[in-house]
Amino acid sequence: MTDIRSYEGTPEAEFGDYVALLKPRVMSLVVFTAFVGLWIAPQPVHPFLIFCAILFIALGGGASGALNMWYDADIDAVMRRTQSRPIPAGRVTGGEALGLGIALSGLSVMMLGLVANWFAAGFLAFTIFFYAVIYTIWLKRWTPQNIVIGGAAGAFPPMIGWACATGGIGIESLLMFALIFFWTPPHFWALALFMKEDYHKAGVPMLTVTHGRAATRRHIFAYTLVLAPFAIWLGLTSVGGPLYLAVAVVLNAMFIHGGWRIMRRNEEQAQADNYVAERRFFKLSLYYTFLHFLALLVQHGWGTW
């Protein structure tokens, strides 16, 4: 496999290419969950400080994305869904991505410490390190548990938001972490079910590659069962309430049912209908986390009113 992390790109890079390095779609979930964690925390925070804190958390998330794209450029060049990213497409150099990631990491951590508190800033620094080093450099290419352990990086933002307001950790922020942490594996494994060849070509030891699709289907269903109690438990804490609980019960019933349908299917059935059930489950998973955190936000506003 050709290592293109130091690839010298063309001088035709545009501003949008550098934005793409920050993984804006992934960053949008980071920003939203961090905002919810900050907004529903028990200590009120001035709106301007909220804006600044979320801005620097977003920059930290973008820094993680740039570092990930720098190191994974060789994998991205092989996988069909990532070949058009700025580095494998030759529009941005690996050095530029690395420099941007390091610069934004330092800026985001220092500024979050100044506008919020140093506990939250340290938490952000650890999250960037976890995603860029623990997940991207180590776990992703080494173990089929890559997305399980590495999923913690995407689950930290609401805890960082909570820490910005409170200066610490609470049971509510831990349960928000658990909601995203246990959601991440079934979300990505569902994608891997109909994208297995990409991971196989790239040499990424996704569960579908190392243990097969039947085992992956069982794991997806198992994680939907583990996830549901944490999602509902969150509704019984100080940030929950009847509105959130109603949303959580409905969404988790749908998620478990989708996982059950996937587990009962064999590969011949899935290929025959072009993985329609797996694609539907993946689409549901895209809304799952967003709707839970939106319900927390609305529940908080309802309770305040």
UniProtKB/TrEMBL annotation:
Its main location: membrane. It catalyses: heme b + (2E,6E)-farnesyl diphosphate + H2O = Fe(II)-heme o + diphosphate. GO terms for biological process: heme O biosynthetic process. Converts heme B (protoheme IX) to heme O by substitution of the vinyl group on carbon 2 of heme B porphyrin ring with a hydroxyethyl farnesyl side group. InterPro entries: Protohaem_IX_farnesylTrfase, UbiA_prenyltransferase, UbiA_prenylTrfase_CS, UbiA_sf. The chain crosses the membrane at residues 26-42, 48-71, 92-112, 118-139, 146-169, 175-194, 220-237, 243-263, 284-302. PANTHER family: 4-HYDROXYBENZOATE SOLANESYLTRANSFERASE (PTHR43448:SF7), PROTOHEME IX FARNESYLTRANSFERASE, MITOCHONDRIAL (PTHR43448). This is Protoheme IX farnesyltransferase. Interacts with CtaA. GO terms for molecular function: protoheme IX farnesyltransferase activity. Keywords: Cell membrane, Heme biosynthesis, Membrane, Transferase, Transmembrane, Transmembrane helix. It is an enzyme of class 2 (transferase). GO terms for cellular component: plasma membrane. Pfam families: UbiA. It is a multi-pass membrane protein. Carbon 2 of the heme B porphyrin ring is defined according to the Fischer nomenclature. Belongs to the UbiA prenyltransferase family. Protoheme IX farnesyltransferase subfamily. Its EC number is 2.5.1.141. It is found in: Cell membrane. Pathway: Porphyrin-containing compound metabolism; heme O biosynthesis; heme O from protoheme: step 1/1.
